[in-house]
């Protein structure tokens, strides 16, 4: 999708300039398109791709002891398995501040690294709520394992032409690659998104639920770089695809 950004000009100025140029503007659909194009040309429109990564960067998190006390208390109340990690800053602007290592949310969580506590809290709520409910409704059994592809990683955004740091660079994103069921079956995003009717329905249902839980949710529908996982973050948004 592309959007036009133009300096403001009054309609009166447009008609005056068009008249001086000898442009005859008639009524009708074609004339409306022509009018917009002329106005853009005269006023210096710049067509820009609609890209969430062009939004101003969010400042990195700052240590917040009060927030951490409240957040970790909520994780404990929710029955999550976790422990608090020390704050870390790395060259290049990356940081892992106010983070926990989450290992369980009513199901075992694999391969996570540092995760900002508010993100971990929302992730636990998503797994214990919509994910488990969808598994019981569709498969008749619970999820016992959530296979992630990690969280904190000091890197830029992948899959688009962008120099922005990823939310992973702030321990503010989790990538989910699949789910293990109680009977030993595994639902992988890579094969399940366009796989069986059950798997496709399950993955789309939990993505829809995630869009109410996180600021940004990216799935295989977003781009090729996300063909094998669901990206969940609490950064810029809301954005759901």
Overview of this protein structure:
With 241 residues, this protein is of the alpha+beta class. It has 2 domains: 2-50, no CATH class; 65-240, 2-Layer Sandwich (Muramoyl-pentapeptide Carboxypeptidase, domain 2), CATH 3.30.1380. Helices cover 33% and strands 23% of the residues. The chain has 6 helices and 14 strands. The strands form 4 sheets. Strands 7, 9, 10, 11, 12, 13 and 14 form a 7-stranded mixed β-sheet that branches. It is globular.
Q: What features would you highlight for this structure?
A:
241 residues; alpha+beta; Muramoyl-pentapeptide Carboxypeptidase, domain 2; 2 domains; 7-stranded mixed beta sheet; 3-stranded antiparallel beta sheet; 6 helices; globular; disordered N terminus
Question: How is the topology of this model organized?
Answer:
Blueprint: E1 2-5, H1 11-20, H2 29-43, E2 46-49, H3 65-77, E3 81-84, E4 88-89, E5 95-96, E6 99-104, E7 108-110, E8 115-116, H4 117-139, E9 143-150, E10 173-181, E11 186-188, H5 189-192, H6 197-210, E12 216-218, E13 230-233, E14 239-240
Parallel strand pairs: 7-9, 12-14
Antiparallel strand pairs: 1-2, 3-6, 4-5, 6-8, 9-10, 10-11, 10-13, 12-13
Number of helices: 6
State the helicity in percent bands. 25-40%
CATH hierarchy, class of the largest domain: Alpha Beta
Structural class: alpha+beta
**CATH architecture annotation of the largest domain:** 2-Layer Sandwich
Average per-residue pLDDT, rounded, comes to: 81
Number of strands: 14
N/C terminus separation: 13 Å
- The H-and-E topology, N to C, reads as EHHEHEEEEEEHEEEHHEEE
Oligomerization status of the protein chains: single chain
Q: DSSP strand (E) fraction?
A: 15-25%
Give a short account of the largest sheet: 7 strands, mixed
């Amino acid at each position: 999708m592309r959007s036009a950004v133009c300096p403001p000009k009054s309609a009166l100025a447009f008609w005056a300039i068009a008249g001086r140029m000898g442009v005859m503007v008639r009524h009708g659909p074609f004339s409306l398109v022509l009018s917009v194009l002329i106005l853009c040309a005269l006023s210096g429109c710049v067509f820009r791709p609609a890209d969430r990564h062009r939004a101003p960067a969010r400042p990195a998190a700052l240590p917040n002891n009060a927030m951490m006390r409240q957040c970790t208390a909520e994780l404990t109340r929710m029955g999550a398995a976790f422990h608090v990690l020390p704050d870390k800053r790395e060259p290049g602007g990356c940081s892992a501040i106010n983070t926990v290592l989450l290992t369980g949310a009513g199901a075992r969580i694999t391969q996570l690294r540092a995760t900002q506590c508010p993100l971990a809290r929302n992730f636990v709520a998503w797994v214990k709520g919509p994910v488990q409910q969808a598994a019981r409704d569709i498969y008749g059994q619970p999820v016992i394992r959530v296979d992630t592809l990690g969280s904190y990683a000091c890197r830029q955004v992948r899959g688009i032409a962008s120099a922005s740091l990823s939310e992973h660079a702030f321990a503010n994103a989790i990538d989910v690659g699949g789910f293990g069921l109680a009977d030993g079956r595994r639902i992988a995003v890579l094969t399940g998104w366009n796989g069986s009717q059950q798997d496709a329905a399950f993955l789309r249902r939990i993505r829809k639920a995630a869009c109410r839980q996180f600021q940004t949710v990216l799935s295989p529908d977003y781009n090729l770089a996300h063909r094998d996982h669901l990206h969940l973050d609490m950064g810029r948004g809301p954005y759901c695809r």
